[in-house]
Amino acid sequence: MLRKFTKTLAGTVAVCAIALNITALEANAEELDDIVAKVGKQEVTEADLAFAARDYAPQLQRVPPTEWRKVLIDVMVEMDVLANAAEKNGMENDENFKRLMKFERNRALRNVYYQKFIASAVSDDQVKAAYDERYANFEGTPQISARHILLKTEEEAKEVIKELEGGADFAELAKKKSTGPSGANGGELGYFSKGQMVPEFEQAAFAMKKGEFSKEPVKTQFGYHVIKVEDSRKTPKPTFDQVKDNIKQELTVAKYKEVMEKLKADTKVEVLKAEPQGEAAKETPKDTKK
Predict the structure, then answer these.
(1) What angle do CA 243, 244, 249 make, to 5 degrees?
(2) pLDDT at 126 over 50
């Protein structure tokens, strides 16, 4: 309730689960060329399923993991059925098909190059070395752990303070009298740093010592608070497992930029039409500001 709004990432758990199962599918295949199904003269292999799994990852989120393999086989069978029909109609000679094949070929080559010379170039040892260097002199930011009792009026808050001064248990009072969502947990807010709470609450809480409770009600937009500081510390150093994925991603991005800079330096690149031409230009939305 008191914490400032922060953005969250939706759907990442499902996507990660699919990625893990795709990796397992590839790893568990005895041979990527093992034949899974036959469609006319076409053969569907384990490798085809792995590639399809990557392309259809968003759709697989809607299906139980136990059904993924069946779905992927159905996808590949239907794909080959349509491909065979396209060949019978001579569509491989269509100019748009040839343009698409050029694009798909270049994309596939880009992907295998990226995997071999960029993603695979970042080793676990490099990630660990980067972690050791980054956190060698780590100094955490100050944090406190606090409880609070939220009340509607100043008079009610002052009455709670009197009860605390008389020896009442803070957590029990919070359970009985707090109107905030943390009341059921004895008013516990956990650890927080500066900048995470509304200003009035933060200023009062960080001015107190461990074990102290506020002697005057603290007014915020939510009502009147009685605060107790439970503990103070500095943020702990993150473990390697907690940050290794982020560090690897950063190193991979840096490697990508390094490789791309070198490749572009060795390649003549000319942008001949930076703006849309012909009919495409007519359909481009114009700036309507005056």
Answers:
(1) 105
(2) yes
What is the rounded distance in angstroms from the CA atom of residue 261 to the CA atom of residue 257?
Answer: 6
CATH dotted code for 142-234: 3.10.50.40
- What's the whole-number mean pLDDT along residues 244-266? 96
Model confidence over 180-190: pLDDT tens digits? 999 999 999 99
| 130 half-sphere exposure, CB direction, 13 A CA radius | 17
The residue count for the chain: 290
What's the rounded Cα separation, in Å, for the pair 243 and 134? 11
For residues 154-165, one letter each, b for 16 or more C-beta atoms within 10 angstroms of the residue's C-beta and e for the rest, the string is eebbeebbebbe
Q: Which two tokens stand for residue 149?
A: 């009792």
Contacts 24+ apart (CB under 8 A), 59-63: 60/18, 61/11, 61/14, 61/15, 61/18
Residue 194 contacts residue 111 (beta carbons within 8 Å): no
Report how far Cα 238 is from the mean position of its chain's Cα atoms.
Answer: 18
Return phi, psi of residue 272, to 5°: -90, -30
What is the phi-psi region of residue 221: left when phi exceeds 0, alpha when psi lies from -120 to 50, beta otherwise? alpha
Cβ proximity of 34 and 53 under 8 Å: no
Concatenating the DSSP letter of every residue in 44-104 gives EEHHHHHHHHHHTHHHHTTS-GGGHHHHHHHHHHHHHHHHHHHHHTTGGG-HHHHHHHHHH
The 10s digit of each residue's pLDDT in 90-103 is 999 999 999 999 99
Phi, psi of 74 (to 5 degrees): -60, -40
The structural domains of the chain, with segments of one domain joined by +, span 12-93, 142-234
Tell me: pLDDT of 26 over 60. no
Q: How confident is the model at residue 289 (pLDDT cuts 50, 70, 90)?
A: very low
Q: 58 near 19, Cβ under 8 Å?
A: no
